[in-house]
């Protein structure tokens, strides 16, 4: 907050006092205006038919203060009580807070054309606060991968984005690090990767990515998340693109394999190009051998 000398005898102090008072009143007016907008939105949500349909009942009003660029904005909003079928108990929520979080995401990702319904679905599916606490904890704790295979799974995609209403094509390189699949019965469960970490690099289409520089970036990311890395046990996975093979070669003595999806796709293409009886049966046996780790490259 601005501080001024209480002595107003000099013209300079009078000038700064007027300027200070003007800005203070302007900021206070902005805070009050924003608070009114939030309270109007809370009133709208209170009258919205969805609120009644879902059984949200008002319990009381609660104050909330947020820090804006022009000062603290304090406003009141309704807190609701509702029956959560998943947890089997009554829970409390401020619908205005949820609406504000949706709009924050929309403002941050306005070029991605994500609907508010999609954001709502994601936020309702996950405990976001718990997720960030877990992510922070995992970021600070490096994983010991001594005597373990360490997979580097690489892929690339292209995405059109808007920058100040100007369309730009972006090239996105995605990498997933992991130590294989978790040991569990996968008969009726989705296979999960163990010790998984991720990274992405986004550049404008046409900008060259130096192989050695990208290799060094991957090593830096590995060292950020893992300890006791055995670089002879690294396995690079990909869909067969030339740049992925170059990355694998840049590491030196590492193995390169096709990822599961593209490996099975290659088997299907091979089966399609060969003429023999019982083609489907043969393909299924190939896939079974592949998934069982019994296909040996000659």
Characterization of the model:
This protein is an alpha/beta fold and 298 residues long. The strands form three sheets. The chain has a five-stranded mixed β-sheet with strand order 7-6-5-9-10. It has nine helices and ten strands. It folds into three domains: 11-125, no CATH class; 145-258, no CATH class; 259-298. Strand 2 (71-84) and strand 3 form a beta hairpin.
Strand order within the widest sheet? Answer: 7-6-5-9-10
CA-based shape: extended
Q: Compute the number of strand runs.
A: 10
Residue fraction in strands: 25-35%
SSE ordering: HHEEEHHHEEEEHEEHEHH
Task: Provide a concise account of the structure shown.
The protein has 9 helices and 10 strands.
Helix-strand layout with pairing:
Blueprint lengths: L10 H37 L1 H5 L3 E12 L2 E14 L4 E5 L1 H14 L7 H10 L2 H13 L2 E2 L5 E14 L2 E13 L18 E8 L6 H15 E2 L6 E5 L3 H10 L3 E4 L1 H14 L5 H13 L7
Parallel strand pairs: 4-8, 5-9, 9-10
Antiparallel strand pairs: 1-2, 2-3, 5-6, 6-7
Helix pairs in contact: 6-7, 8-9
